[in-house]
Amino acid sequence: MINKILALDLGQKKIGVAISSNMSLSSTPLIVLANDSDLITNLTKIISENQINQIVIGCPRNIDGSDTIQTSNIKNMAKDLMTKLKFNNYLFQDEFLSSKRAQEIINQSKQYSADDEDMLAASLILDDYLKIIENKINQ
Question: Considering the entire predicted model, what is its pTM?
Answer without folding.
Answer: 0.88
